[in-house]
Protein backbone atom coordinates (compact mmCIF):
# COMPACT_ATOMS: atom_id res chain seq x y z
CA UNK A 1 0.00 0.00 0.00
CA UNK A 2 1.34 3.47 -0.82
CA UNK A 3 1.88 6.22 1.74
CA UNK A 4 1.61 9.97 1.74
CA UNK A 5 4.86 10.84 -0.04
CA UNK A 6 4.22 8.54 -2.99
CA UNK A 7 0.55 9.51 -3.22
CA UNK A 8 1.29 13.23 -3.47
CA UNK A 9 3.63 12.53 -6.41
CA UNK A 10 1.24 10.19 -8.22
CA UNK A 11 -2.01 12.12 -7.59
CA UNK A 12 -1.03 15.83 -7.68
CA UNK A 13 -4.64 16.94 -8.28
CA UNK A 14 -5.58 15.38 -4.93
CA UNK A 15 -2.59 16.74 -2.97
CA UNK A 16 -4.64 18.44 -0.25
CA UNK A 17 -6.71 15.28 0.22
CA UNK A 18 -3.78 12.89 0.72
CA UNK A 19 -3.78 11.08 4.08
CA UNK A 20 -1.00 8.98 5.69
CA UNK A 21 -2.01 5.91 3.69
CA UNK A 22 -4.76 6.96 1.29
CA UNK A 23 -6.65 9.72 -0.48
CA UNK A 24 -9.85 11.21 0.88
CA UNK A 25 -12.59 11.40 -1.72
CA UNK A 26 -15.14 14.22 -1.51
CA UNK A 27 -18.75 13.95 -2.64
CA UNK A 28 -19.68 15.95 -5.70
CA UNK A 29 -23.29 15.19 -6.67
CA UNK A 30 -26.00 12.71 -5.74
CA UNK A 31 -28.27 11.09 -8.32
CA UNK A 32 -31.52 9.15 -8.09
CA UNK A 33 -32.48 6.16 -10.21
CA UNK A 34 -35.07 6.95 -12.86
CA UNK A 35 -35.43 3.78 -14.94
CA UNK A 36 -34.71 0.07 -15.04
CA UNK A 37 -31.42 -1.41 -16.19
CA UNK A 38 -29.95 -4.75 -17.22
CA UNK A 39 -26.76 -6.72 -17.71
CA UNK A 40 -27.23 -9.58 -20.18
CA UNK A 41 -24.32 -11.34 -21.89
CA UNK A 42 -22.14 -8.37 -20.88
CA UNK A 43 -24.50 -5.95 -22.68
CA UNK A 44 -24.87 -3.07 -20.21
CA UNK A 45 -28.03 -1.05 -20.00
CA UNK A 46 -27.44 1.44 -17.20
CA UNK A 47 -30.47 2.96 -15.48
CA UNK A 48 -31.19 6.61 -16.24
CA UNK A 49 -30.23 8.88 -13.38
CA UNK A 50 -31.31 12.34 -12.28
CA UNK A 51 -29.13 14.86 -10.44
CA UNK A 52 -30.61 15.89 -7.10
CA UNK A 53 -30.67 19.49 -6.01
CA UNK A 54 -27.72 20.30 -3.73
CA UNK A 55 -25.59 21.30 -2.06
CA UNK A 56 -27.24 19.59 0.93
CA UNK A 57 -28.70 16.24 -0.08
CA UNK A 58 -31.32 14.40 1.95
CA UNK A 59 -31.09 10.61 1.67
CA UNK A 60 -34.39 8.89 2.33
CA UNK A 61 -34.45 5.77 4.54
CA UNK A 62 -33.88 2.42 2.77
CA UNK A 63 -33.04 4.07 -0.55
CA UNK A 64 -30.08 3.77 -2.90
CA UNK A 65 -28.40 6.67 -4.70
CA UNK A 66 -25.39 7.19 -6.92
CA UNK A 67 -22.68 9.57 -5.73
CA UNK A 68 -20.08 11.13 -8.00
CA UNK A 69 -16.68 12.04 -6.60
CA UNK A 70 -15.34 15.56 -6.92
CA UNK A 71 -12.71 16.00 -9.70
CA UNK A 72 -11.61 13.43 -12.25
CA UNK A 73 -9.00 10.91 -11.23
CA UNK A 74 -6.13 9.42 -13.20
CA UNK A 75 -4.87 6.13 -11.82
CA UNK A 76 -1.33 5.69 -13.16
CA UNK A 77 -0.46 2.50 -15.00
CA UNK A 78 1.08 0.01 -12.58
CA UNK A 79 -1.22 1.02 -9.70
CA UNK A 80 -4.70 0.04 -8.59
CA UNK A 81 -7.08 1.66 -6.09
CA UNK A 82 -9.55 0.19 -3.64
CA UNK A 83 -12.21 2.42 -2.09
CA UNK A 84 -13.39 2.14 1.48
CA UNK A 85 -16.27 4.04 3.09
CA UNK A 86 -15.74 6.72 5.69
CA UNK A 87 -16.57 5.16 9.04
CA UNK A 88 -18.65 8.17 10.11
CA UNK A 89 -21.14 7.15 7.44
CA UNK A 90 -21.23 3.52 8.62
CA UNK A 91 -21.81 4.75 12.17
CA UNK A 92 -24.75 6.67 10.73
CA UNK A 93 -26.26 3.58 9.01
CA UNK A 94 -25.18 4.75 5.56
CA UNK A 95 -22.99 2.57 3.34
CA UNK A 96 -20.82 3.50 0.39
CA UNK A 97 -20.51 0.66 -2.12
CA UNK A 98 -17.50 0.69 -4.37
CA UNK A 99 -15.42 -1.44 -6.74
CA UNK A 100 -11.84 -1.53 -7.98
CA UNK A 101 -10.07 1.41 -9.65
CA UNK A 102 -8.08 -0.07 -12.52
CA UNK A 103 -4.58 0.93 -13.66
CA UNK A 104 -4.87 3.61 -16.35
CA UNK A 105 -8.44 4.65 -15.48
CA UNK A 106 -9.23 8.31 -16.11
CA UNK A 107 -12.60 9.77 -15.34
CA UNK A 108 -15.23 10.38 -12.68
CA UNK A 109 -15.68 7.80 -9.95
CA UNK A 110 -19.28 6.87 -9.28
CA UNK A 111 -20.14 5.09 -6.04
CA UNK A 112 -23.44 3.85 -4.66
CA UNK A 113 -24.71 5.24 -1.36
CA UNK A 114 -27.43 3.43 0.58
CA UNK A 115 -29.21 4.73 3.63
CA UNK A 116 -29.92 1.58 5.65
CA UNK A 117 -31.37 3.60 8.52
CA UNK A 118 -34.99 4.28 9.41
CA UNK A 119 -34.36 8.03 9.34
CA UNK A 120 -33.28 10.57 6.76
CA UNK A 121 -29.58 11.36 6.44
CA UNK A 122 -28.27 14.70 5.21
CA UNK A 123 -24.94 15.07 3.47
CA UNK A 124 -23.34 18.07 1.78
CA UNK A 125 -21.39 18.38 -1.44
CA UNK A 126 -17.66 18.55 -0.65
CA UNK A 127 -17.83 16.33 2.42
CA UNK A 128 -15.52 13.32 2.29
CA UNK A 129 -17.34 10.02 1.85
CA UNK A 130 -14.61 7.46 1.13
CA UNK A 131 -10.89 6.86 1.18
CA UNK A 132 -8.98 5.39 -1.76
CA UNK A 133 -6.01 3.17 -0.96
CA UNK A 134 -3.44 2.52 -3.66
CA UNK A 135 -1.42 -0.60 -4.42
CA UNK A 136 1.39 -1.30 -6.82
CA UNK A 137 0.38 -3.93 -9.40
CA UNK A 138 3.03 -6.25 -10.76
CA UNK A 139 2.75 -6.88 -14.49
CA UNK A 140 -0.11 -4.40 -14.74
CA UNK A 141 -2.27 -3.99 -17.83
CA UNK A 142 -4.24 -0.82 -18.53
CA UNK A 143 -7.99 -0.10 -18.28
CA UNK A 144 -9.73 0.80 -21.50
CA UNK A 145 -13.35 0.04 -20.67
CA UNK A 146 -16.64 1.85 -21.11
CA UNK A 147 -16.12 4.31 -18.24
CA UNK A 148 -12.82 5.63 -19.53
CA UNK A 149 -12.94 9.34 -20.44
CA UNK A 150 -10.67 11.20 -22.79
CA UNK A 151 -7.90 13.11 -21.05
CA UNK A 152 -7.73 16.79 -21.87
N1 LIG B 1 -17.26 2.18 -7.58
C1 LIG B 1 -16.51 2.43 -8.64
C2 LIG B 1 -15.42 1.62 -8.94
C3 LIG B 1 -14.68 1.89 -10.07
N2 LIG B 1 -15.00 2.95 -10.83
C4 LIG B 1 -14.24 3.27 -12.04
C5 LIG B 1 -12.78 2.94 -11.91
C6 LIG B 1 -12.65 1.66 -12.65
O1 LIG B 1 -11.37 1.57 -13.23
C7 LIG B 1 -13.74 1.75 -13.71
C8 LIG B 1 -14.25 0.42 -14.15
O2 LIG B 1 -14.63 -0.34 -13.05
P1 LIG B 1 -14.97 -1.88 -13.24
O3 LIG B 1 -13.86 -2.56 -13.98
O4 LIG B 1 -15.39 -2.40 -11.92
O5 LIG B 1 -16.26 -1.77 -14.19
P2 LIG B 1 -16.87 -2.74 -15.23
O6 LIG B 1 -16.09 -4.01 -15.30
O7 LIG B 1 -18.30 -2.81 -14.98
O8 LIG B 1 -16.65 -1.87 -16.54
P3 LIG B 1 -15.91 -2.25 -17.89
O9 LIG B 1 -16.77 -3.31 -18.49
O10 LIG B 1 -15.84 -0.99 -18.67
O11 LIG B 1 -14.54 -2.74 -17.46
O12 LIG B 1 -14.77 2.50 -13.10
C9 LIG B 1 -16.08 3.73 -10.52
O13 LIG B 1 -16.37 4.71 -11.20
N3 LIG B 1 -16.82 3.46 -9.42
Automatic annotation (TrEMBL):
Q: What class of enzyme is it?
A: hydrolase
Q: Which UniProt keywords apply?
A: Hydrolase, Nucleotide metabolism
One Pfam family name from the record?
Answer: DCD
> Which CDD domains does this chain map to?
trimeric_dUTPase
Offer an example of a GO molecular function term for this protein: dCTP deaminase activity
What Enzyme Commission number(s) appear in the record? Answer: 3.5.4.13
* Keyword Hydrolase included in the entry's annotation: yes
What biological process terms from GO does the record include?
dUTP biosynthetic process
Q: What is this protein called?
A: Deoxycytidine triphosphate deaminase
Amino acid sequence: MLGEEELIKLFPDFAELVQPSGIDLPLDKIYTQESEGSLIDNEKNLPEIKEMEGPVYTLKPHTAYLASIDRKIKIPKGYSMLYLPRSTLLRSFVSVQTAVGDPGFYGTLMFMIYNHGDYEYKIKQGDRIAQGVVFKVEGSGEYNGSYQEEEK
